[in-house]
Amino acid sequence: xxxxxxxxxxxxxxxxxxxxxxxxxxxxxxxxxxxxxxxxxxxxxxxxxxxxxxxxxxxxxxxxxxxxxxxxxxxxxxxxxxxxxxxxxxxxxxxxxxxxxxxxxxxxxxxxxxxxxxxxxxxxxxxxxxxxxxxxxxxxxxxxxxxxxxxxxxxxxxxxxxxxxxxxxxxxxxxxxxxxxxxxxxxxxxxxxxxxxxxxxxxxxxxxxxxxxxxxxxxxxxxxxxxxxxxxxxxxxxxxxxxxxxxxxxxxxxxxxxxxxxxxxxxxxxxxxxxxxxxxxxxxxxxxxxxxxxxxxxxxxxxxxxxxxxxxxxxxxxxxxxxxxxxxxxxxxxxxxxxxxxxxxxxxxxxxxxxxxxxxxxxxxxxxxxxxxxxxxxxxxxxxxxxxxxxxxxxxxxxxxxxxxxxxxxxxxxxxxxxxxxxxxxxxxxxxxxxxxxxxxxxxxxxxxxxxxxxxxxxxxx
Length: 462
Ligand code: F0G
What we know:
Elements lengths: L26 H10 L14 E2 L11 H8 L9 H13 L4 E5 L2 H12 L5 E4 L4 H9 L3 E4 L20 H10 L7 E4 L12 H14 L3 E4 L3 H11 L8 H10 L3 E5 L10 E5 L2 H14 L10 H14 L2 H20 L12 E5 H4 L9 H13 L1 E2 L1 E3 L1 H4 L14 E5 L7 H16 L7 E5 L10 E4 L3
Parallel strand pairs: 1-10, 3-4, 5-6, 6-7
Antiparallel strand pairs: 2-8, 7-8, 9-12, 11-12, 13-14
Helix pairs in contact: 1-14, 2-11, 3-11, 4-5, 4-10, 6-7, 8-9, 8-12, 12-16, 14-16
The structure holds ligand F0G.
The site of ligand F0G has 15 residues, from helix 4 and helix 5.
């Protein structure tokens, strides 16, 4: 037996095989670029960004074995071997009867809610991600967030802040019988801080759904990270294989939507899955209209291969230990600097509480936007506002402060090293030291929905 010595270093369980250059910019260049982008970070050219923490979606590095799998991609229109490898890999973790491939997560949402949404319907979720909410509302249905009380307090440390409020769910189902076509639980809860949902909570939600005869679906984008948190934090789960925890989560649900751009470890892809034969038939008919034939959805055979291999890798314990530990490393450093974050740090991202850091900027003057712009101007870091810019505009046209004003530092999978993260920490320290000098923003132009992608801003007091 080897004598194992424990070291604290977070060692990346891979070495680098192919590198991409990063371009350094000067403060003057960044100032010019952000003004030209009307202070919207989505409008930047990404080669003007040094460390891109805009999203963990589709931005991860693929492995040698995924690139090799891509060479096996078979582009047959129907019944390709790549489809069957994809199907096997998905069903090994999520043994639903019907797996419907899509080009990404929101395509699965669009198809599902077209089939079961519509005016008068209500869809509860712990917290809807923005595309999920938009796809529910686009059908005329109402999207309701039923996050547990712990999830609303950014500073509170609780192991499962993504849990759904089961009491509120019961109340909603009791008072709106016949209007709820599905209950959704998002694992991990992205918009609420990348926080996990426990198996106990999923079981309790399932029991309520059973009492009212309503199907439970998972928005499972970050299922492996959620399962790792369960393994680390939920009593009795410590010695289990994470694959079994994933299968337990799947067994509690009737279906799922998935973006393979997160825990599929791929750059594109997703799926919709369910047990209901009739619903699956309706969804496949919609799939053929917009995505493609049911054995490829919106994907090339090579993409199906990359996802199949990604699903084998994402549930490896060494990978997940490194993944969750390295996100915590960033979060813990920010806490030591006195920067308020959603605690404990999430799985795929650290969420800075911009309202807490910039109390002098009112929510309707977008403290999250102010912080995100400052992180770019100071150090070339691109982050994402998740607050009043993203959620403040209601379908009725009125504007309200969002529940929280957060700035998300999302960590692409297997992409940045610890010294990149040390640089991010140094830039955050610099911005926080001058926080009182930052000013708020005003939106001068916005689209009717999902305004954060294309809104144009003006700095107040400029
Ligand atoms: N659900 C959740 C919880 C998500 O985080 C996302 C995407 C989607 C659904 C939609 O998936 O992008 O493949 O269409 N989240 C990305 C993000 C965009 O940056 O958090 P998609």
